[in-house]
Amino acid sequence: MLAAAGWWWGSRRLDALGRSVLLSHLGEGGRALVETEEPPRVDRFDVRVLARVLRWGDLRPNEPVLLKLASGHAPRQGTRLSVIGVLATPSSAQASWLRRQGVHVVLRVKDARRAGRRGGFAGLGDRLQRWLAHDSAFGLTGERRQVIDAIVLGQSRGLDRTLLDRFRASGLYHCLAVDGLKVATVAAGALALFRRRMIGHLAALAAVGAYVLAVGFHPSVVRAAVAVALASLAWLSARERDRWHAMLVGALVLLAWNPMFVRDAGFQLSFAAVAAIFVVTPRVVRALAGYPVPHGLAQLIGVSTACGLATAPVTWMQFHQISVVTVPANVVAVPVVAQMLVLALLTAVIAPFAPPVAAALARVDAWGATFVAACARFFGGLPGAQVTSSAAVAALAAGVLLVAAYAWPHGRGRAEARLSPLGKRPAEDRPRVAPPA
């Protein structure tokens, strides 16, 4: 019954995403009222932004499009524009990705005039986004501000292309996007502000909801927000928490909204990483139990290893590249990224009331931005930091399997020896004594 209902609903959503009113008007020009839905992507020759067409001539399509404007005209997220333009087909390079977003046409704008801003919850998200973009790196300029903006809001468009390539090669590119780590950091920060756990969980729900509105409903953000919400609701209702259940509910929510997300790189990377953290991290921690590695560092190594192993096949299939240095790079940089996010949000909260204090906090955060950028440049610039050939990927996979085959039994033996009583052998090595008759 549930499978049939899911099949029916998925078919309905796919049909809705595949339907287009504007597709039959390709090549036509006209006046339209559009609403931008994300920050613009500024290139050398034009500006592109996802938007929604509210009115096209006498039609009210309420349909998403890719808006292409002249260079130098970059409207903010949530801006309403009255435009004159021509409907065209997307380029072959963009068509597949746009189709997964429900976008079928491109609107090439010849003339645009501002006609207001959108309202409702979307408008609230726009205001939160503008507040964080303005105040989270209060008083900073240049690369350090761009790194902080990318860490807080996932907007890496202003960064130098060479630095972006280093982030990709080092396996740190996820730090420039909003992922589960940042959503969990927001929730933990809100929870830590209150001594009463009930108020703390309510604050965590509110903080995560506001953060999601500000950064947008990306697959990794929605998955993490659903997990945090279920964890807080479980505590408030005195129910047992199940992390696998939370992950599956997140997948259900996303696929119910857009079944084509299953082919999206962000969706695949997010769920592969989380599932690997659940399965692989405890085993890596046990393998390190016999070494002089602090438990916190062992957890960090375990999470980095799990994410690196799980996301490697996805990055190869989607982008034809795999970072070899992702584990050490993440072990070094990720703790700083989490602290930077907390400090940036604190700076944004303080800035309207105490600008000098906010400026001082931002300068401290700037040191973190410099450190993270230096990590990306160092690890991403190492020889062989990234593999892009099939032969190198096969050799890398063979090496990983050999290391795992060696480490697994030795790790279990060290962990059992460490957990056994002092001066005694593990239980399976002790001589068995027959019970008395």
List low-confidence stretches: 422-437
Global shape: globular
Largest sheet, strands/sense/barrel = 5 strands, mixed, barrel
What amount of the residues lies in strands? 5-15%
> What's the gyration radius in Å?
25 Å
Estimate the mean pLDDT confidence.
Answer: 84
User: Can you count the helices?
Assistant: 14
**Global structural class:** alpha+beta
Q: What this model shows, in words?
A:
The radius of gyration is 25 Å and the shape is globular. Helix 6 (180-192) runs antiparallel to helix 7 (197-215). The chain has 437 residues and is an alpha+beta fold. The protein is 59% helix and 13% strand. It has helices spanning 2-18, 92-100, 120-135, 142-153, 161-170, 180-192, 197-215, 219-236, 243-257, 265-287, 295-319, 326-350, 355-380, 390-419; strands spanning 29-36, 41-42, 46-56, 63-70, 79-88, 106-117, 322-323, 386-387. It has 14 helices and eight strands. A five-stranded mixed β-barrel has the order 1-3-4-6-5. A two-stranded antiparallel sheet has the order 7-8. The protein has two domains: 21-118, OB fold (Dihydrolipoamide Acetyltransferase, E2P) (Beta Barrel); 127-411, no CATH class.
Give the secondary structure arrangement, pairings included.
Blueprint: H1 2-18, E1 29-36, E2 41-42, E3 46-56, E4 63-70, E5 79-88, H2 92-100, E6 106-117, H3 120-135, H4 142-153, H5 161-170, H6 180-192, H7 197-215, H8 219-236, H9 243-257, H10 265-287, H11 295-319, E7 322-323, H12 326-350, H13 355-380, E8 386-387, H14 390-419
Parallel strand pairs: 4-6
Antiparallel strand pairs: 1-3, 1-5, 2-3, 3-4, 5-6, 7-8
Helix pairs in contact: 3-7, 3-12, 4-13, 5-13, 6-7, 6-8, 7-8, 8-9, 9-10, 10-11, 10-14, 11-12, 12-13
